[in-house]
Amino acid sequence: MSGFILETKHLTKEFKGFTAVNDVNLKVQRGHIHALIGPNGAGKTTCFNLLTKFLVPTSGQILFNGKDITAAKPAQIARMGVIRSFQISAVFPHLTVLQNVRIGLQRQLGNSFNFWQSERSLNALNDRAMQLLADVDLSEFADTITVDMPYGRKRALEIATTLAMEPELMLLDEPTQGMGHEDVHRVTELIKKVSAGRTILMVEHNMKVVSGICDKISVLQRGAMLAEGSYAEVSSNAQVMEAYMGTEATVLEGAH
């Protein structure tokens, strides 16, 4: 099997004359934490939406483990092991933390989410759910109603529910957005921890996070690939500095 878990070939998405993603050739190496960065409007989220099949490409190909998944439906690629964690905390606010993770685990009981499953069969999932909560340092919150959790902890819960679906490739959409310094640090450490044995592709604005944990970085600008490489290579690239201009360029510098 090739060293690349995910590849795009000439991936393009047009919206009524506007090209949001333009001829992108992305290669994500198995076992890496790979970041997709770029100024606002660079096409990062559109690219993510194409990869998870929430949008259909205008042209180009998407390969997962060497298999063409360009025409696959979102549920099909989720079953293959491509799981996305959403930018906006995608958890059930009025269920407990434990119940949220259990819903993710129900995938193992069959292909559908059986909200009406008997309590006994769901309790069989409790041990695994508690283990996942321990992995993301949320054991003490198991019985907390999710709506009452601090924002950073909700994002950790979202990672736990994503892990419950046993992703081979985990897509994280701005995992530290809107967080204070302490939460950013906690979630960064958490991503590093859960990356063992899996591949992570993330869209992230925070350059300190990117510089600290990513093996490879792809920079998009106006929908096209501008640069790719390690953090050191990308952050010293003149075109990247220009694309980020001013304040964001100093952020790139400052994260060294």
From TrEMBL:
GO CC, one annotated term: plasma membrane
Coiled coil: none
CDD domains: ABC_Mj1267_LivG_branched (cd03219)
Signal peptide: none
Pfam families the record matches: ABC_tran (PF00005), BCA_ABC_TP_C (PF12399)
Keyword Cell membrane listed: yes
A GO term for molecular function: ATP binding
Domain spans labelled ABC transporter: 6-247
SMART domains in the cross-refs: AAA
Keywords annotated in UniProt: ATP-binding, Cell membrane, Membrane, Nucleotide-binding, Transport
PANTHER family per record: ABC TRANSPORTER ATP-BINDING PROTEIN (PTHR45772:SF3), CONSERVED COMPONENT OF ABC TRANSPORTER FOR NATURAL AMINO ACIDS-RELATED (PTHR45772)
Protein name listed in UniProt: ATP-binding cassette domain-containing protein
